[in-house]
Amino acid sequence: MLSQPFQEAIPVIDQFEQHGYEAYFVGGAVRDHLLGQSIGDVDIATNATPDVTMSLFDRTVPVGIDHGTVLVLHNGNEYEVTTYRVESDYRDYRRPDHVAFVSRLEDDLARRDLTINAMAMDRYGQVIDPFQGRNDLTHGVIRTVGRADDRFHEDALRMLRAVRFSSQLNFAVTNDVLTAIKRYHTLLQEIAVERIQVEWFKLFTGYGVAHALDVLNKTDMYQSLPLLNQERDVIKHLTKNIKRPIRHPEAVMALCACLSNTLTLNDWIKSYRCSNIIQRQAKKLIQSVSKFKENGLTSFVVYTLGDVNLEAFQQVVQSLDLPDVSLEQLHEVYEALPIQSKQQIAVDGKQLQSIIPDWRKGPWIGRYLQAIERAILAGQLSNDYEAIERRVKQWKEQEND
Ligand SMILES: Nc1ccn([C@@H]2O[C@H](COP(=O)(O)OP(=O)(O)OP(=O)(O)O)[C@@H](O)[C@H]2O)c(=O)n1
Fold first, then answer.
1. How far apart are CA 21 and CA 46, in angstroms?
2. Whole-model pTM over 0.80
3. Which residues are CTP-binding (predicted)?
């Protein structure tokens, strides 16, 4: 029995078949289905050309028409439907959009990166597997479809993909792949950083992360990744210390910055083209790590991090040579905080002003709120209006003296 995402896509396959075309589920969804994992996007391959696909469905978006990809919207779901294709000339790897449509499913599967990603499945769940991807799934092997050299010249990103799948699936990489990576990793320097970033962060999320980092090291592939060529100690340290998956990109960036002697967080964020959100959270992580180094696990460290960054913080601390803290410990400290955010302070700026009416509105309000916040967190002031009012009046007296 196919899982729900496939079931929901069957009418799309039917529509092709009823008009005399072939259509199959392909790629990651088939792989993950065979692994018994929950599946992400359902992708479809067909021998219908993009214009035919667009004529067969009411709602379509030509998202990558040069690559033969049309987005089909059906019953609230989106499906990437791609016409069977091959890269027409693998030496032209700098132009991945250089494709030719073909009529046979097997030719389409043959141009894909890894055997485990080169399977198709029909609407009944029958698997088409010309490159023994299923066997590699069973034995835990990352192998290219055909020669690794050819596949990696078509798209150099595939070298990094091979390593990231070995991490995510905890699979071994074939010698053929390792040898090709050693020989051709410099081709990665031609790849858009945005594409590298996606694979780089996914590489840290798998249970095989330690092994994957070891591969980056042994094959020298890290030398072709942004900044790592300048900071060899970073990759060496990551390889030695990371034993468990890191699911937060900001934790990865914070770690790299903490381990760098010469490069700042900003350098890493810029080179890997990270979003502002990642930058903000990584900054928070770094500040908290440095406070943690100074004073241990204080309320203030946990408060500054906030609920959402606790796991990322734990992962960073665990991967540096610092005293271990567990996630449970962090949550305990967080739950016991007298306040968990500024909004919970029992007075606001307006009330502060009414406590000291003879001072005009100004920067003192922010300064006082911060002092109140710190005193509450340090356990030196209780978070209720009267107590704060008394303390504020004392501070004012002291300032007047
Ligand atoms: N450089 C690439 C990228 C993708 N593919 C093929 O396109 C499919 C879809 O790629 P993508 O969506 O990037 O990855 P998934 O395999 O679906 O895996 P995930 O969603 O976990 O990233 C892959 O399975 C693979 O068959 C490829 O051959 N070469």
1. 7
2. yes
3. 28, 31, 112, 155, 158, 161, 164
Q: Which amino acid is at 392?
A: V
User: Pick from 394, 295, 377: which is nearest to 336 by CA?
Assistant: 377
How far apart CA 277 and CA 282 sit, in angstroms, is 8
The radius of gyration computed from the CA coordinates of the chain, to the nearest angstrom, equals: 27
Q: What is the average pLDDT value for the chain, to the nearest integer?
A: 94
Name the residue at shortest CA distance from atom 12 of ligand 1.
28
Angle between helices 193-203 and 157-169 (to 10 degrees): 20
What single-letter amino acid sits at 163?
A: V
214 vs 218: CA distance, rounded Å: 6
Q: Which residue has the CA at smallest separation from atom 19 of ligand 1?
A: 28
Cα dist from 116 to 28, 31, 197, 241, 316, whole Å: 8, 6, 22, 29, 32
Q: Is the shortest distance between the CB of 158 and ligand 1 below 6 Å?
A: yes
pLDDT band at 67 (very low <50, low <70, confident <90, very high): confident
Do the Cβ atoms of 253 and 278 come closer than 8 Å? yes
Nearest CA to ligand 1 atom 29: 113
Query: For tokens 């030398």, what's the residue?
Result: 223
| Helix (H) or strand (E) run with residue 228 in it | none
Q: Which pLDDT tens digit goes with each residue over 105-159?
A: 999 999 999 999 999 999 999 999 999 999 999 999 999 999 999 999 999 999 9
Q: Is the Cβ–Cβ distance between 73 and 82 less than 8 Å?
A: no
3-state secondary structure of 353: helix
Complex ipTM tops 0.95: yes
Which residue matches tokens 């400290």?
Answer: 333
pLDDT per residue as tens digits for the range 297-346? 999 999 999 999 999 999 999 999 899 899 999 999 999 999 999 999 99
Q: What is the distance between the alpha carbons of residues 102 and 85, in angstroms, rounded to a whole number?
A: 5
Contact 319, 241 (CB under 8 A): yes
Where residue 88 falls (left for φ over 0; alpha for ψ -120 to 50; beta otherwise) is alpha
- Most informative mutation of 114, 117, 151 for ligand 1 (most atoms within 8 A of CB): 117
| Over residues 185-195, mean pLDDT | 97
Residue 58 annotated as binding? no
